[in-house]
Each structure stands twice: as C-alpha cells, then as structure tokens.
Design goal:
Number of helices: 17
CATH topology: Cytochrome p450
Bound molecules: 3-methoxybenzoic acid
Strand content: 5-15%
CATH superfamily: Cytochrome P450
Helix content: 40-55%
Structural class: alpha+beta
Number of domains: 1
C-alpha cells in the first residue's frame, strides 16, 4: 500500500484547539491518507473532498456517516432517513423535505425572523457585556427555528444537548462522546415526543411533514423520523454558523467596517464565515467497492473521513484561504456539503445569518471581544462555548 499513514488524532482536544497544521499535513500527504489510530482513510484536499461528496455510488452514507460502520455495529440511534440513507430511499424522503422547506415556505418566515433579529440586537445593545454564544448565537436560532417547526415553548434548550450528542456520535466513542451521552435518556425521550404529530402546531414544518404522510408520500413512522432530522440538524449547526460569523467580524474589523458601509453584504458575510470556520468539520463515507481516490485503491467497506474544513481552506483551491473576506467569490465551498446530501436547511441557515448580521450592521458601530473566548469541543462541530462581547451602538 502506497497510501501515506499518519498517526494524528482528529478527534482530540489538541487537534480541536488548532486543527490547521494537521489539515495542512493531511492535504500535503496526498489525495488520501491512512489514519492509523482509527483504521480509516482521510481526504482533505478540496478537489477530492468535492469529488467524494458528488459520488454517492462509490461513497455510501447507508453504513453511517460516522466512524461506526452500521454493517458491523448497531447504530447509536435509529438511522436518519436522509443523512444515513442512499438512493433510492434517500431521494424519496429528500423530495418530501424539499417540498416542506420550499423557497415559498422559507420566504414566508422572513418577516418574523427579521423582527426577532432586530429585537435581539436592540436588547443586547442595552447591555454592557454579553456572551455572543449563549445570548446571541444560541438565543436567536433557539427562538426562530422551533417556532418555524411549530414546537411548544417548553424545554427548547434540550435541542442543544441533543445536537451535541448526535454530532459527537459521528466520531469515536471517546470522552467527548461519553460526556455528551451521559443522562441522555430524558433528552432522547423529549426529542421523540416532540416529533409526534400531536406535539406540533399546524402552521409549521413539522405539521407539513406529517401532512406528507396523509398524502402517502411517507409512512407515519417515517414522518416522525424526518421531524427528528429537523430537530437534530437545525439548531447546533446554525448556532455555530452564527457564532463563527460573530467571531470572524470581531477579529477582522476591516470586514465589519465594510459590512456596516453596505449591510446588503450580510448574507455574504455569513457565507464566508461558513467557509472559513466550517461549523460542520467532517463526515465519513463507506466505500462500496474497490474505489480509487487520486489513483489509490482503498478496497470495499472502508471508512473515509472527509475534512470539509480543510477543503474550505485548501490553498490549491483558494487564494489567501485563511483570510475572512466578505466579498470573496466563495461559491463552491463545501461548508454545506455538496451533491445529493447537500444541506437541506441551508436556505434557513442563510436567512438566519443574513438577518442577524444585517441587524448588527445597521445598529452597531463596533463589535469587540471583551474577554477570553472558550472553545467548545465536539467530534464534528467547530465553535465556541463562550465569547464575551461588547457592542457599541451606531
Ligand atoms: C439527521 C441529521 C443529523 C445530523 C446532521 C444532519 C448535517 C442530519 O438526523 O438527518 O445533517
């Protein structure tokens, strides 16, 4: 075997504190490298990550998109009917979800989402100092998203530990995973209860999924599992996306100045933060045969880890990849994935990002980090646990 072997641990605290030297080593090692600690392969160059995302026939999702191989180990939870399926089943459920999250449905949310963003920024401007993670990046999605799904008000914060569990479960069964799933039972029971038709108000995405079951497009049981996908993927991801954008704007004041000068750049400022910080860092695929990556053959049933975050900073693809540049032409970044599994909720995430950053651009003269940022550790998600911040009113 000519595939270079690396002894790195991409699921360790040291790695999460500073993944970039390891990203560079993985990219420079070749199109594919072997992760000896995990008996899995790694792909970190943009070209090959993009090609893998496009090739569901050779790189399957059905055996899980984490390290665990569903053909050998019992899945940690009932597999997702979107994320953890291949065509044709995937395409049937995805079609239903594309209908539910249609451009018209998302457009209808805009006014409410905008009002919530303006109100929140006004409130934060009244405070000397706040935490940009808890009080902003978490607070905003935790209000607007469950409203859009049609969830009741109680216990919405359970969505955060649930997301933390699921996104940790894609890595090894390490201490991050074990800590996340301690006391999981009440959270899992709550999520399951929220997925039921009776729990969801008529105007939301949840009810729309259950109506697809009335129409016979999915079964009643499938509808509940599809609602669960929204509850899993809809909050932690946007929390870390908005958190990334705030962290970028605070560290690149020239870019915040440009955003203030032209608030219509808000959507682009969010998109560039998703490229640079890549809130979803990695996903695995499983090879379906003796597939080749950059001329190297891997054999059947092998796990391959795609480094979305490394692809999004690959100097072979991007000029000054580590710079946050809100007018960069960043189309083609893989922060929302690519191909048949490309993020279903990206339209909603972009709406939330645009509206929060737009409110910030119109209402604030300066955004500053006013204390020590603390990183959040998760096997899949990159983001902060705490980011003390001050805003100055415009
Ligand atoms: C799902 C799901 C879970 C986690 C992530 C995700 C990024 C989807 O349950 O379908 O997409």
């Amino acid at each position: 075997m000519t595939v270079p072997s690396l002894d790195v641990d991409p699921f360790s605290r040291e790695f999460f504190d500073d993944p970039f030297p390891v990203h560079a080593a993985l990219r420079d090692a070749g199109p594919v490298a072997y992760l000896s600690r995990y008996d899995a392969f790694a792909v970190a160059r943009y070209e090959h990550v993009q090609a893998m995302l496009a090739d569901w026939q050779n790189f399957s999702s059905q055996r899980g998109v984490g390290l665990s191989d569903f053909a050998k180990e019992k899945p940690w939870r009932l597999p997702s009917l979107l994320l953890e399926k291949d065509p044709p089943l995937h395409d049937r459920t995805r079609r239903v979800m594309d209908g539910v999250m249609s451009p018209a449905a998302v457009r209808a949310l805009r006014a409410d989402f905008a009002r919530a963003a303006d109100t929140l920024i006004d409130e934060l401007l009244q405070r000397q100092r706040f935490d940009a993670v808890c009080d902003l990046a978490e607070a905003y999605p935790l209000t607007v998203f469950p409203d859009a799904v049609g969830m009741p008000r109680e216990n919405r914060r359970f969505l955060l530990p649930y997301g933390n569990m699921v996104f940790n479960s894609f890595g090894p069964r390490n201490d991050f995973f074990k800590a996340a799933v301690q006391d999981a039972a009440p959270v899992l029971a709550w999520v399951q209860a929220q997925s039921k038709r009776e729990a969801l108000s008529p105007g939301g995405f949840g009810a729309a999924i259950h109506r697809a079951a009335d129409a016979g497009d999915v079964t009643r049981d499938e509808a509940e599992i599809l609602v669960r996908s929204l509850l899993t993927a809809g909050v932690d991801t946007t929390v870390n996306g908005i958190g990334a954008a705030l962290y970028c704007l605070a560290r690149f004041p020239e870019q915040f100045r440009r955003l203030r000068a032209d608030p219509s750049l808000a959507r682009a400022a969010f998109e560039e933060a998703v490229r640079l910080e890549s809130p979803v860092q990695t996903f695995f695929r499983t090879t379906t045969g003796n597939v080749a990556i950059g001329g190297e053959h891997l054999g059947e049933g092998r796990k391959v880890l795609m480094f979305l975050g490394a692809a999004n900073r690959d100097p072979r693809r991007w000029e000054n990849p580590d710079e946050y540049d809100i007018t960069r032409r960043n189309a083609g970044h893989v922060g929302f994935g690519h191909g048949i599994h490309a993020c279903l909720g990206a339209v909603l995430a972009r709406l939330e990002g645009e509206l929060i950053l737009g409110a910030l651009a119109r209402k604030c003269a300066a955004i500053e980090i006013s204390g020590e940022p603390k990183r959040r550790y998760n096997n899949t998600l990159r983001g902060m646990a705490s980011l003390p911040m001050t805003l100055r009113a415009a």
